[in-house]
Amino acid sequence: MKNMVLKVQGMSCQHCVNSIEGALKEINVSGKVNLGDDSVEVTYDEDQVSLEKIEEVIEEQGYEVS
Question: Does residue 58 sit in helix, strand or coil?
Answer without folding.
Answer: helix
